[in-house]
Amino acid sequence: MFKNLLKRSSSKLQIKAPITGEILPLEKVPDPVFSQKMMGEGIAIIPKEENIVAPVEGTIIQIAPSKHAIGLKAKDGMELLIHVGLETVSLKGEGFKVLVNEGDHVSVGDKLMVVDLDYIRNKVQHIITPVVITNSNQSSNQYYPTAETECQAGKTSILTVDQ
Fold first, then answer.
1. Which part of the chain is the PTS EIIA type-1 domain (predicted)?
2. pLDDT tens across 102-127, in order?
3. Fewer CB within 10 Å of terminal CB in the chain, N or C?
């Protein structure tokens, strides 16, 4: 009767889509840093809309100087990186309008950034957007990508983290 009380309780965190689009496994990102999970576990999205929203409740911990990536820290310490497109650092901020600052607290669905998809698509080879848990190798969490192929920003769960 008491043995169930001694078992480690686990919780599940749902990471929501930061952008509306087509969901792909991280292994499909045409960049080995992401596809080989050198930066961590995650999933990728080919964007169809320009708004980037918070995928979890947490704090903004990093905004790339070139505005192409935003880092967040969830309440449980998990760190996420939303990296819009590949080689977008070369755009030097053009095509990106960041709406938050480092240190800001955000809730799921809060708007973080607006991107000019047409501009970016015409300037870089890929608009695919990896969403990566950068400290996943420092935990024993299990990560389960969604079976969905399309997502809506702030609404669709794209990754379940079993903590």
1. 31-135
2. 999 999 999 999 999 999 999 999 99
3. N
For the question of whether the overall pTM of this predicted structure is more than 0.85, the answer is yes
Q: What are phi and psi of 114, to 5 degrees?
A: -120, 130
Task: Please state, rounded to an integer, the average pLDDT across all residues of the chain.
Answer: 93
CA angle 91, 119, 50 (to 5 degrees): 105
47 neighbors 127 (Cβ within 8 angstroms): yes
What DSSP state is assigned to residue 27?
G
**pLDDT tens digits, 19-61:** 999 999 999 999 999 999 999 999 999 999 999 999 999 999 9
Which residues are tagged catalytic? 83
3-state secondary structure 84-130: CCECHHHHCCCCEEECCCCCCEECCCCEEEEECHHHHHHHCCECCEE
The Cα-based distances of 160 to 10, 63, 85 in angstroms read 12, 24, 23
Architecture per CATH, 11-162: Distorted Sandwich (2.70)
